[in-house]
C-alpha cells in the first residue's frame, strides 16, 4: 500500500509545466489524466497521483529546499529516457543516470523541473 494519496508541486507557468511533464513522465508509463482548467493538471498510471498546480494563495510557486519527488521507473532504460527527456525539455541535471549505493540495484537519475522542483526516477530491478 502506498503511503501517500498524491504528490503536488507548484508552477508559475502551467502551459510550460504541462509540456514538460507530458514529455518526462511518458517514458515511465505515466500520462496526463485530467486538466483542472487554468489551475493545474494531474498525471498518473491509472489514478491521480501527481499534481502540478498554481498555488491556491496566488503567491509565486517555489520549490522545497531539500525536497525530492521520485517516480518509479519500470526499467533502467526508462530512467535514462526520463532524464534525457527532462534535459531536452529545459530541465536541469541534478545527478547523472547511474547506480546509487543506498539500496541494492538502485539506479536513478535526478533533474530539476522548470520551476526548480527536484525530481528523480528510480528503478530497483537488477541490470
| Number of helical regions | 2
Structural class: alpha/beta
Q: Summarize the main sheet.
A: 4 strands, mixed
CATH structural architecture:
Roll
Characterise this structure.
This protein is α/β, with parallel strands linked by helices and 127 residues long. The chain has one domain (7-56, 67-123): Roll (2,3-Dihydroxybiphenyl 1,2-Dioxygenase, domain 1), CATH 3.10.180.10. The chain has two helices and eight strands. The chain has helices at residues 14-25, 76-88; strands at 7-10, 31-35, 40-44, 50-53, 69-72, 92-99, 107-112, 118-123. The strands form two sheets. It has a four-stranded mixed sheet with strand order 1-4-3-2, covered by helices on one side. β2 and β3 form a beta hairpin. The radius of gyration is 14 Å and the shape is globular.
Amino acid at each position: 500500500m502506498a503511503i501517500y494519496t498524491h504528490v503536488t508541486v507548484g508552477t508559475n507557468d502551467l502551459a510550460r509545466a504541462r509540456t514538460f511533464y507530458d514529455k518526462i513522465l511518458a517514458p515511465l508509463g505515466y500520462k496526463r489524466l485530467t486538466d483542472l482548467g487554468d489551475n493545474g493538471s494531474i498525471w498518473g498510471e491509472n489514478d491521480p497521483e501527481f499534481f502540478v498546480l498554481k498555488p491556491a494563495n496566488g503567491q509565486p510557486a517555489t520549490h522545497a529546499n531539500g525536497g525530492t519527488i521520485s517516480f518509479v521507473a519500470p526499467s533502467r532504460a526508462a530512467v535514462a529516457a526520463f532524464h534525457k527527456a527532462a534535459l531536452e525539455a529545459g530541465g536541469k541535471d541534478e545527478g547523472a543516470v547511474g547506480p546509487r549505493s543506498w539500496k541494492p540495484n538502485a539506479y536513478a537519475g535526478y533533474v530539476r523541473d522548470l520551476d526548480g522542483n527536484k525530481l528523480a526516477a528510480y528503478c530497483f530491478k537488477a541490470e
